[in-house]
Amino acid sequence: MRPLGAHCQLGLGKLYRRTGKRQEAREYLTAVTTMYREMDMTYGLEQAEAEMRRLA
Fold first, then answer.
1. Strand (E) positions, the chain?
2. Is this model's pTM higher than 0.85 or not?
3. What is the pLDDT along the chain (56 residues), one digit of tens a residue?
4. How far apart are CA 33 and CA 47, in angstroms?
């Protein structure tokens, strides 16, 4: 279930970024980046890192 939870958090991070809620987006994307690293899911990690770059 952790991969599903991570995918949902990534989706929330994207949603918050697109709606201009930068702090909330950063919190979700930071959490999901950690989750993907712990699970060694490189594709999801790349997506999360790309979203973080879009925040900058």
1. none
2. yes
3. 999 999 999 999 999 999 999 999 999 999 999 999 999 999 999 999 999 999 98
4. 9
